[in-house]
Design a protein that fits this description.
The chain has about 55 residues and is largely without helices or strands. The chain has no helices and no strands.
């Protein structure tokens, strides 16, 4: 025997989020115009510290 199911409407919950801003960049190498004194290809390179507000 078929039983009827009651209609259950969809439930929605809105969650508020913070906006995130990202800093994006693109780098194009220029081997002819780029040089560094005392360059050592085996040396570890540190990107340094950057602070964004």
């Amino acid at each position: 025997m078929n039983k009827k199911h009651f209609y259950e409407p969809p439930k929605i919950e809105a969650i508020e989020l913070e906006n995130e801003l990202f800093f994006c960049t693109s780098v194009s190498p220029n081997p002819g115009g780029s040089n560094e004194k005392d360059y050592d290809p085996d040396e570890d390179i540190d990107g340094g510290e950057y602070e964004f507000e």
